[in-house]
Each structure stands twice: as structure tokens, then as C-alpha cells.
Amino acid sequence: MSSIRFDQKTVVITGAGGGLGRAYAIEFARRGARVVVNDLGGSGSGDGQSSAAADAVVEEIKALGGEAVANYDSVEEGEKIIQTAMDNFGRVDVVINNAGILRDSSFAKMSDQDWDLIQRVHLKGAYSVTKAAWPIMRKQNFGRIIFTASAAGIYGNFGQANYSAAKLGLYGLTQTLAIEGAKNNIRANCIAPIAGSRLTETIMSPAVVEALKPEAVAALVVSLCAQECEENGSLFETGAGWTAKIRWERSQGVVLEGEDAVDADKVADSLARIGDFEGADHPASIEDTFKPVMSRIGMDQAKP
Ligand code: NAD
């Protein structure tokens, strides 16, 4: 028997009609969860809609003996998705923000529409679903939330300015919700997955798409949503059974005194030393950022 179980728990998964979301839905259901399979059912670039994708995954879960219900709303209307969970199962314990599309083009050629749609689906969509679930999780003193970033957001990628901005934005959201939810046992984590799906089949060979199983990403996602999991505010890269954690690294920095502190030429002369990571540290909070700055003005103990 699996040790991580979700019996009596309701898991809402956006974009669960295919790819990664489908793998999550099946794995949560296999471990006893009641699953809301949300999917708008449009194309990879966000055109059109259909109930077929979500329905197919619900049928698959039922055939395996699990419990699931479909929802076809866009993540932009998060309250409707959460309402489906409440109407059918009476609670929401886990939210997996996974729905996504691509509108790739170089920044020079990117239209306002392509910029806006990507922000709306990825960033506003994850906000909207999570915002609707938040008071429910706070009230029951339990919640597990996953946001889906991307290596394109962490490192940048040619042709994905809109997508990169939204994806790293989701990590910012993760970190703040991890802080705000902690006292109510709500934990938020973020993943940057690599898997074969219709979004990656255009840039990967069929053999690579076939080998990069979404199920390997599902294993991390499910583990982060376990009741016992204490992980909070973290960012993971994961694919094909490899999982690594990302953290910020900060150089020791350079202090310029007196007139030099406001002299751009002196800063320019110091850039190489500023970027020297010998003796770097790993700040983990906003307080860690203020420390060196406040100590410069002789207010080490003071709050900004
Ligand atoms: P996918 O296209 O198979 O799955 C995305 C699903 O989201 C689709 O079924 C789609 O219909 C649904 N969707 C799109 N817009 C929606 C909306 N407005 N409301 C509800 N559902 C909507 O692609 P995937 O690779 O499984 O992607 C899942 C997530 O992982 C996405 O957020 C994607 O950006 C992210 N991601 C994937 C990879 C990868 O290697 N596959 C890498 C980095 C990030």
C-alpha cells in the first residue's frame, strides 16, 4: 500500500486534461484523493475550448476505481473551479496550479495580446484559483499549493519573454504565500518541470518526449502535498527522476565609502569585485537583504 495517502482530501488540478496535469490527477486519485480535473480544453496556444480533455481524464480515474469530477472553466475564473470542488466534495485541501499555454515569439515581434494572454493564464490564473481556495484552507488550518514555474523563467529563454516573466512571477507568489500561509499550515512550493507533452513536442524529438515521463514529475508534486511534508516556499527543478532545489546566492558585496558611494565611475570600477562569489551567502528572507544595508547606516537592530 502507498504510504502517502489523500483519503477524504480534495485536490484541485488545473490544466489536468493532458500532459503533466493528467499524470498528477491519476497519481493523486490512486492515492485516495477526490480530484477536480479542470481543463479548458483549448489548443497549446490558448485558442478554442472543449470539455473532451477533462472528461477523458475523469473517465480514466473512474475506470481505475477513483473519484473525480470535471470542470471546464478557464483558470482566469478560479472561483468557479473552487466552487466545483465545494459543490461536489465540500472541501479543498490541495491546489495544483498547472494550466498553461505558450505564445512564443522574439521580444521584437511580440504583440501586446501575446504578452497579456500569457500573464492572464499563468500568473493571473494561478492567482485566481489560489485566491478562491485561500479562505477555505485558512479556515480548516490545512492547505498544500503548487505553482508551476519553468526553466525559461529561472534562466531566460529566447522567444519566451512573456512566458519567462509570468513563470518567475509565480515563484515570487509562492514565496510570499509560503510566509502568509505558514501560521495556518498552508504550504506553497514551486516546480520547474521538464516532461514530454504537447507543449514540448514541438521542440523535442519524439524519442525525448516519450522518455521524459510526466509521471516522474508527479512523484515530486504528490510528495510535496503530503500532510507530513514541511517543505515551504521552495523551488525545485525536476524531470526524468532527477530533482534539485534552487536557492539564491549573494556575493559578499563591495562597500563604497563617502563620495565614492554615489559615484557611478567607482561602482563601474567595482563591478568585477561585486560579482565575485568567493565567500557568498544564501539569503532566505527579506530581513537578510536589509541587514547589510541597515548596518551601513548604523542601524543594525532597527527595522526599516
Ligand atoms: P499541456 O499543454 O499538456 O498541459 C496544459 C493544460 O492546460 C492543457 O491541457 C490545456 O488545455 C490546459 N489549459 C490551458 N489554458 C487553460 C486555461 N486558461 N484554463 C484551464 N486549463 C487550461 O502542457 P504541459 O507540458 O503538461 O504543461 C503543464 C504546465 O507545466 C504548464 O504550466 C507549463 O507551462 C509547465 N511547464 C511544462 C514544461 C514541460 O517540460 N512540459 C516545462 C516547464 C513548464
UniProtKB/TrEMBL annotation:
<dbReference type="Pfam" id="PF00106">
    <property type="entry name" value="adh_short"/>
</dbReference>
<protein>
    <submittedName>
        <fullName>3-hydroxyacyl-CoA dehydrogenase/3a,7a,12a-trihydroxy-5b-cholest-24-enoyl-CoA hydratase</fullName>
        <ecNumber>1.1.1.35</ecNumber>
        <ecNumber>4.2.1.107</ecNumber>
    </submittedName>
</protein>
<keyword id="KW-0456">Lyase</keyword>
<comment type="similarity">
    <text>Belongs to the short-chain dehydrogenases/reductases (SDR) family.</text>
</comment>
<dbReference type="InterPro" id="IPR002347">
    <property type="entry name" value="SDR_fam"/>
</dbReference>
<dbReference type="InterPro" id="IPR036291">
    <property type="entry name" value="NAD(P)-bd_dom_sf"/>
</dbReference>
<dbReference type="GO" id="GO:0006631">
    <property type="term" value="P:fatty acid metabolic process"/>
</dbReference>
<dbReference type="GO" id="GO:0033989">
    <property type="term" value="F:3alpha,7alpha,12alpha-trihydroxy-5beta-cholest-24-enoyl-CoA hydratase activity"/>
</dbReference>
<keyword id="KW-0576">Peroxisome</keyword>
<keyword id="KW-0560">Oxidoreductase</keyword>
<dbReference type="InterPro" id="IPR020904">
    <property type="entry name" value="Sc_DH/Rdtase_CS"/>
</dbReference>
<keyword id="KW-0276">Fatty acid metabolism</keyword>
<dbReference type="InterPro" id="IPR057326">
    <property type="entry name" value="KR_dom"/>
</dbReference>
<comment type="pathway">
    <text>Lipid metabolism; fatty acid beta-oxidation.</text>
</comment>
<keyword id="KW-0443">Lipid metabolism</keyword>
<dbReference type="GO" id="GO:0003857">
    <property type="term" value="F:(3S)-3-hydroxyacyl-CoA dehydrogenase (NAD+) activity"/>
</dbReference>
<feature type="domain" description="Ketoreductase">
    <location>
        <begin position="9"/>
        <end position="189"/>
    </location>
</feature>
<dbReference type="InterPro" id="IPR051687">
    <property type="entry name" value="Peroxisomal_Beta-Oxidation"/>
</dbReference>
